[in-house]
Design brief:
The complex is a heterodimer of chains A (784) and B (267).
Chain A lengths: L14 H5 L15 E7 L5 E7 L1 H4 L4 E6 H6 L31 E2 L5 E7 L2 H10 L1 E6 L6 H4 L15 E8 L1 H9 L3 E9 L11 E7 L4 E6 L4 H10 L9 E4 L15 H13 L3 E4 L2 H7 L6 E9 L5 E13 L26 E10 L13 H19 L3 H8 L6 E2 L5 E2 L4 H11 L5 H10 L3 E10 L7 H6 L8 E7 L5 E5 L8 H13 L6 E4 L17 H27 L7 E4 L2 E4 L5 E3 H10 L12 E6 L8 E11 L4 E12 L6 H21 L31 E4 L17 H18 L10 H13 L1
Chain B lengths: L4 E3 L4 H10 L3 E4 L5 H6 L7 E4 L9 E4 L2 E5 L4 H6 L1 H6 L1 H8 L4 H6 L2 H7 L6 H8 L2 E4 L3 E3 H4 E3 L2 E2 L7 E7 L3 E8 L6 E10 L2 E7 L7 E2 L1 H9 L24 H21 L1
Parallel strand pairs in B: 1-3, 2-3
Antiparallel strand pairs in B: 4-5, 5-10, 6-7, 6-10, 8-9, 11-12, 12-13, 13-14
The chains are: A alpha+beta (784), B alpha+beta (267).
């Protein structure tokens, strides 16, 4: 059975339905009596809402109801919350402004929901939404976080004076300042991490259904974690108690983090269904996705990296301003703190690190976790400043990194993280070899003769996945624990259902999770089904984000399988009159080791349920559950090398080579892992060269609100990637898995920017490095 | 999209009649600009009169040095026309790089010219070739047809039926696509015609497609990329947006002109 077990390149079970267009998404759900909805949204970045007149809209054809924030409040629906408490350095709790699912007195960004229209058809709902008359009094807006901190800036929330949510720090400031003062060399940079729009292929959608007869609510929603949605909606938003609320996240077409969070629309749809008595569906159009999905990144950092006379790092100081947008989204507070500053040691032994983070409200879409969540921002800071230092010091970027690598494990960094295992030199060596790093100068000369500027850049990233022991995240302010649950149900004829709290929205869990079961029990994949995404089927779960489903979700399944195996072996021993310790499970059979006695798995399952002949005291059936709480983060790491050619006439950059050498620990399905790396690299290269989110500074309008202006990576923007892995098993979980979902997006942006700045000799270039910017930088350089 | 009434005439006369009858009617050809605008509710014609099923608007004719392309001919048909490629491959190559395959099988040359999007490819070609735009009422020189952003000399109920031009001695097109939309951020079509060198620029002008006189003057001396060394065009009347400043576009005009000439000479 090894062909389908761990390590096999099994084709994805789910792809047949996805690529034949027969997946089942929220928009495919139809409930008898279902109606459609449209949201009335603020066209202004910042405005007081003076009056909402719904009379004309209510008279429009097909309209069932027009509901506003006032009605929502009067029904006791709560404000949205941020689920991770972060304290400022003075000990005060973060300043969270109120976020009503429908804005009542004030709209704070373009797209802020103000009212919902429920109608017979989607077109009628939209027509009526245009007829809702909202009297706005426009206010001055601010979209840039640094500007929002300035005196006299427009103020968003009375709870957050000066728009400051928190002023947080980690590390010893005095020790860092002292090390910088006595350093042989200090590299100083201002580093900007550009704001990104997530752009999942499937837009967000919700279908709320209140069943009056049963007094029960069902919500179909595009969620990466339906169980968390249920908890939050019942415990904080008073939409419905948990026992009367079922949340279903069916096939979900990509999330990248943006579907972790609980959004106003899903709350409002469910509430509107109860209020109107009809099931209410909403599906975002692409413009709404651009405007209202939680965006990612948007940091501005002042960075200093200090070295001694031997080019060893002595201290890193980082001062970051993080743009949070108009409201605090569900995980927003954790992203630029515990998921960012704790990774600032990178792969390096840095004795002292200090990071200060100011989180800021602005009149923009809320910002939250997006593929990598904090770790891309940390990696970008570290790998850009290290590369720059190498240039300033006149040493090879590879050797400067190598000299400062952490080489003994476990390694306690000055910023909480305790790295458990890794071999950073191995990834660096593998990447340099694959990229023929030594031959670069020859290639550069050849390109020069053809009128092109060739550059090479690397990035040695580390990230933390599988987030982390519940007790640890709890002590850092998380509102929930971050374990995972699993249940393995063996059916009477021996087929298996695995219920998992992880959620698949493109990751391929139906395949990889089944491969684990196949490996353990020797059963073919088609006898194993994975069940997820429904709170009525799976009791509890924490969902999928932070590359946690392999390391945490599969570990829970492994634990449940342990229990199933124990019981199965006990029963097999009884049936074959053998010793329990002599039973082995192989190729779908339970065998008495060293004999020819066997019981097929299907017969054992039948015996467990028939219960005619069980050992003394054994309960009938074969079904076990488990919760798995990790003991630590996992630490995937690797080295990426990017080689580019710039056309100096146009500033156009072509990636001519991209090498990724990753350490992901043990790998379940190499094909899926490679796919994850390819996708992550595409997103990281997109951030570095193509994707820029622009708000008009004056009006606060989102300029890049469609694909006409927001540039997503296309196949012809990307090279053919050379990916490889050199794996050190993770000691922290039973499967030795580290996680691979975000690495590509984390490690690639600095590699690309290091390569382009190497090619053009201008280090101030910001992402995205568009042709215009590269051309302007080259032009400025020739003027000097 | 707001509700609209769709008409599918088979003759130009019927199309004009339907448009006249409509309260706020619009001709639609490939709809590659109009339909997205309607979907986002930015356009709301009461009636759509579809021109793609009017037989007399379709087809490519090559007669000696004279090329005539029917207005409802799709970009894909232009790209794949063997007889056109024989005499003027630059037009086929231009059509082959408009949008994506979906766009090329829906969008038409007449629709593109009548819409006169400031970033569309065909207006530059027609202006540089000194083409004649034929309508159901008259014939217009390209120099008189394009009037600014999305503006042409067309009357409301006037239909472009064809374009016609004389194959030049040499011609070529080069564009630098906008990274996001892939429309021309700057595209230059150069043609060595019997009346001299003409170079038309799309994607860059604040008033839409225009002739680059500096480029024409340089190429008139020598129809070669080397003639453009050191030539610059003013950035004063060029577009400036988040993707490209006027100064950058001015640079691209010269660079794309060089590449267009190189392509023309290679062909």
């Amino acid at each position: 059975m090894a062909m389908e077990g761990i390590g096999a390149r099994v084709a994805r079970k789910e792809d047949k339905r996805f690529i034949t267009g027969s997946g089942s998404y929220v928009d495919d759900m139809v409930v008898p009596g279902m109606k459609h909805s449209a949201f009335v949204r603020s066209p202004h970045a910042h405005a007081d809402i003076k009056k909402i007149d719904t009379k004309a809209a209510e008279k429009m054809p097909g309209v069932i109801a027009v509901l506003t924030g006032k009605q929502l409040k009067s029904d006791g629906i709560g404000n949205l919350i941020c689920g991770w408490m972060v304290h400022s350095k003075d000990g005060s709790p973060m300043n969270m402004g109120a976020w009503s699912p429908l804005a009542v007195d004030r709209a704070r960004y373009v797209g802020d929901a103000v009212a919902i229209v429920v109608a017979e058809t989607k077109g009628q709902a939209r027509d009526a939404a245009e007829a809702v008359e909202v009297a706005y009094k426009e206010k001055k807006s601010v979209t840039d976080a640094v500007a929002a901190l300035k005196k006299g800036a427009p103020q968003l929330h009375p709870e957050a004076a000066g728009n400051l949510i928190y002023d947080w720090e980690i590390g010893e400031a005095a020790a860092v300042d002292k090390a910088i003062a006595s350093a042989a060399h200090v590299t100083t940079m201002r580093i900007v991490n550009n704001r990104l729009v997530p752009n999942a292929m499937e837009p967000r959608a919700a279908l709320g259904h209140y069943d009056r007869a049963e007094d029960h609510h069902t919500l179909w929603t595009t969620s990466q974690n339906p169980h968390v949605a249920r908890v939050v909606m019942s415990a904080f938003y008073n939409v419905a108690p948990e026992n009367k609320l079922r949340v279903i996240a069916p096939d979900v077409g990509g999330g990248f983090g943006s579907k972790i969070f609980i959004y106003p629309e899903e709350i409002v749809c469910l509430w509107a269904s109860r209020r109107t008595g009809v099931p209410v569906k909403w599906v975002a159009d692409r413009t709404e996705s651009f405007m209202c999905d939680a965006h990612g990144r948007d940091h501005v950092s002042e960075v200093q990296l200090a070295f001694d006379q031997n080019n060893r790092m002595t201290a890193l100081k980082v001062d970051t301003v993080a743009n949070f947008g108009a409201y605090m989204s569900l995980f927003s507070s954790a992203v630029p703190t515990y998921l960012y500053a704790t990774l600032l040691s990178g792969q390096y032994a840095i004795p002292q690190i200090h990071c200060n983070v100011r989180a800021v409200y602005t009149n923009t879409a809320p910002v939250d976790a997006y593929r990598g969540a904090g770790r891309p921002e940390a990696t970008y800071v570290v790998e850009r400043v290290v590369e720059t230092a190498a240039r300033e010091l006149g040493v090879s970027p590879a050797e400067l990194r190598r000299r400062n690598f952490i080489t003994s494990f476990p390694h306690q960094t000055p910023v909480i993280m305790n790295y458990d295992a890794g071999d950073y030199a191995a990834s660096l060596d593998a990447a340099m070899k694959a990229a023929d790093y030594a031959g670069f100068e020859k290639r550069r000369d050849k390109a020069k003769k053809a009128g092109k500027l060739r550059g090479i850049g690397m990035s040695c990233y580390i990230e933390a996945c599988g987030i982390a022991p519940s007790s640890a995240v709890g002590s850092l302010g998380a509102g929930v624990g971050l374990w995972e649950s699993a249940e393995v149900r063996v059916n009477m004829a021996g087929t298996i259902e695995v219920l998992t709290g992880s959620h698949s929205h493109g990751q391929g869990h139906e395949t990889t999770f089944a491969q684990l079961v196949s490996q353990r029990l020797g059963l073919p994949l088609d006898q194993i089904s994975i069940v997820h995404g429904d709170t009525d089927k799976v009791q509890m779960g924490m969902g999928t984000y932070g590359s946690r489903s392999g390391a945490v979700g599969m570990s829970a399944i492994a634990k449940a399988l342990d229990k199933v195996e124990v019981k199965a072996k006990k029963l097999a021993a009884h049936l074959m009159e053998a010793d329990e310790g002599d039973i082995v499970i192989e190729n779908g059979e339970l065998k008495v080791a060293g004999t020819d006695k066997t019981v097929p798995w299907s017969q054992l399952a039948l015996a467990a349920y028939a219960a005619h002949n069980l050992p003394e005291g054994m309960e009938p059936g074969l079904k076990e559950g488990a919760f798995y709480d990790p003991t630590n983060f996992t630490f995937p790491a690797g080295c990426y090398i990017c080689e580019v050619e710039v056309d100096p006439e146009t500033g156009r950059t072509e990636i001519v080579q991209f090498v990724a050498a990753d350490d992901f620990g043990n790998i379940i399905n190499p094909m899926i892992v490679e796919g994850q790396v390819h996708g992550g690299l595409a997103q990281g290269i997109g951030q570095a060269m193509l994707e820029g989110t622009h708000y008009d500074a004056e009006s606060g309008q989102l300029i890049t609100a469609s694909y006409m202006d927001y540039c997503m990576p296309r196949a012809d923007d990307l090279p053919s990637f050379q990916v490889s892995t050199s794996n050190t098993p993770c000691p922290g979980n039973p499967l030795g898995i580290k996680g691979c979902g975000e690495a590509g997006a984390i490690g690639s942006p600095p590699a690309v920017m290091n390569a382009i700045t190497d090619a053009i000799g201008d280090n101030d270039l910001t992402m995205p490095a568009t042709p215009q910017k590269v051309w302007a930088a080259l032009k400025a350089a020739t003027r000097h | 999209m707001y509700s609209t009434t769709y008409h599918r005439p088979t003759t130009v006369a019927d199309a004009v009649k339907l448009r006249k009858k409509a309260e706020d009617g619009q001709f639609v050809s490939g709809g590659m600009t109009l339909i997205p605008a309607m979907k986002t509710r930015l356009a709301a014609p009461s009636d759509l009169v579809d021109l793609r099923h009017v037989g007399e608007l379709k087809g490519i004719k090559v007669s000696g040095k004279t090329v005539t392309i029917g207005a409802a001919t799709t970009h894909a048909e232009v790209a794949e026309s063997a007889k056109l490629r024989k005499v003027c491959p630059a037009i086929c190559d231009l059509a082959a790089h408009i949008g994506d395959p979906h766009v090329r099988h829906m969008g038409t040359i007449g629709g593109s010219l009548a819409n006169n999007d400031p970033s569309a490819d065909y207006p530059a070609a027609m202006l540089a070739l000194g083409a004649t735009i034929v309508t159901d009422k008259r014939e217009l020189a390209a120099d008189k047809f394009f009037k600014g952003l999305f503006e042409t000399a067309l009357k409301d109920d006037e239909i472009v039926t064809a374009v016609t031009f004389t194959v030049p001695a040499k011609c070529g097109y080069a564009k630098f696509p906008n990274p996001a939309s892939r429309y021309a951020m700057t595209g230059v079509f150069v043609a060595k015609t019997k009346d001299g060198v003409r170079a038309a620029v799309t994607g860059a002008g604040e008033d839409g497609v225009f002739r680059a006189r500096e480029v024409e003057a340089a190429l008139a001396k020598k129809f070669d990329a080397s003639a453009l060394e050191g030539v610059s065009v003013p950035s004063k009347d060029l577009m400036s947006d988040i993707h490209a400043s006027a100064e950058y576009r001015a640079n691209l005009v010269v660079v794309m002109a060089k590449r267009a000439v190189a392509a023309a000479n290679a062909g």
